[in-house]
Amino acid sequence: MLRVGADRDDAAEAGTVVTPSAEFPPLGDEERAALGRIGERWRGPRRADDLPVDPTLGRHDRHPAPTRFGRLAPIDMFTVAQPDELVATGAADLPGDRAGRTAARVRRALLGPPLSSASVLYERMRKLVALPVLSSDLLSSVAYGPEAMLAVLVLAGSTALGLALPLAAVLVVLMVAVGLSYRQTIPAYPHGAGSYIVAGDNLGRTPGLAAAAGLMLDYVLTVSVSVAAGVHAVTSALPGLSSWAVPLGVLVIAVLLAGNLRGVRTAGNIFVLPTYAFVVVLLAVLAVGYAKAAARGFAPVPPPSVPAAEGLGLLLVLRAFSSGAVSMTGIEAVSNAVPAFRPTEWRNARTTLGWMVAMLVTLFASLVGLIHLDGLVPRADETLLSQLGRVTFPSGPGYAILQATTALILLLAANTAFNDFPRLLFFMARDGHAPRRFLHMGDRLAFSNGLVALALTAAAVFVAFGGHTERLIPLYAVGVFLAFTLSQTGMVVHWRRHRGPGWRRRLALNAAGAALSGLVLLTAAVAKFTEGAWVVVLAVPLLVLLFRRIHRHYARLHHALALHPPPSAPPAEGDELPQQVRHLVVVPVARLNRASLRALAYATSLGRPTLAVHLAPEEAEADRFREQWRAWGDHLRLETIVSPYRSVIGPLAHYLEALHAASPDLTLTVIVPEVVLRRRRYRLLHSRAEQRLRVALRALPGVVVTSVPVHVS
């Protein structure tokens, strides 16, 4: 057995389901039993160990020798692990051609050398690293959440800004309730307590998929909004860069993608310092700002007069409340990423979540209070945090440091989504609701396909909305609070089913979180529907429908390929035993040369009935080819097909289809000679008939297309 990856994976023993082996699920009991029954009837042509070559490659005394094409480098490709096992070294992954090796070197220079599968346990994060990595989205939202709330209130004039304090108090209660609810969710689902898993386990598949759709939209918008807000912070300090906002944002997304492709631990080390720096600088701003307010007896500075553009009503207040609620996006990040923590995973995750919520409440409430005391109002040309920095640090480097750290954390806040979005796709793909390629771990044990999908989608959204934060915010709250609501409702059902000690208290806490989250969800969906929330309201059911269609496809595929083939399967593809397979080998021959004779020799060596087929554009060429065939010796049955319209692939495919229809239980093996050229630049000079034939016959059951290569230097 050849096992790629240096050592056995110990991650499963550590209690996590996120392992490189997830791409290869084990057989169920029913399939194992069926496999045993099939094996009892299996009759092969020879003994299993009767091979013309030593499969161990002489593991103890010699190495593979290079060929003249350089396909096999003279290196030790395999190391001995166990008596019956070979293990590929990292060098075995290098491509054989020069262009491929160059691309591999560039990739390794950017992303680092590949990591062994056994390193998955050591790629996890400790609490001090996980806190800034997973909280960057949550903590960075205080840079635009209060402003989003005040930007709606100021539409009713300066006098409406006084409602900011009571609205902030309600939001703090919501933050604490949802935070405590998720703290209960983590130990209940220690292998990853994402909303998708919790809602699907307790409420059913459709609510789980709805929660997943909401989270996916939230993660995409997290990247877009965070990058847009970060670029806005940069252009507030450097107005000359305003025209370059969109290219700068796309560049930042590309840098984030490259950093996360280097692996969880490396990305964490890269993004630790900006988050901690932002928290420290913001605490300094609050300390200095409140000290100045204390010096004047905490008397609020009157805000500048702003005329009312709308009347102050319930709908406006609800819109302001839902806009301020975007400060909570990212609060679920820790519960989704429990497997990314070091053991004991759930305990470290719960502690980290507690720290995050405490920091969020402190920063959000303090910022809203200080903005009120300093009499600041939202402006189109400058962020509120920038105004607060100018008031707090009128001279010295304080303002520049605040803007720099704010821009950094806003730009890097998207890293939270880069951690959770691929992990969500992993769990969905494991259940068959997303493409299975999202189960694959890349060279650095990161979910590379999920990372690339997130980066491309977020970049498209960012460009489509021109990098404007205010245009993206209305889309933001609906998806995440849909996930919050379904997750907390699912936990209510969970506690009712598993009535352990204190289950009533836990149920009441999750019920409160579900009710408050549902209130915000309805408020955001109704109040911001015409501002863009309709996009999310429409996208969620469409995504759920897409996920269900993907699951249906995989279910049909599994049923068709399982070890108990369905009665409706074609006989030629339903056979499981060698003695049940009836062969006909077909060799298309265009002209008699070394390539076609090699294909004919290979086909005859299989010891199965063999038929040669020649397609001619006219009768004269068909007669000429039959004369050449007789000169060769007429060793095989030849069938000539005249194609007066000079088409080759179509008539050949229809002929093979007719052969298959005449005997559906027959397995047709089509052997095509293929000329392999060493130089890539000459490949455009040759047709790839074997590839076109394979595509034409792909939908035909019971047909196997293979090629016999003839190498030309």
UniProtKB/TrEMBL annotation:
Residues 1-66 are annotated as: Disordered. Residues 1-11, 29-50 have a biased composition (Basic and acidic residues). InterPro entries: AA/rel_permease1 (IPR002293), APC_K+_Transporter (IPR053153). PANTHER family: POTASSIUM TRANSPORTER KIMA. Signal peptide: none annotated. It is found in: Membrane. This is APC family permease. It is a multi-pass membrane protein. Keywords: Membrane, Transmembrane, Transmembrane helix. The chain crosses the membrane at residues 128-145, 151-180, 215-235, 241-258, 270-291, 311-331, 352-373, 398-418, 445-467, 473-495, 507-527, 533-550.
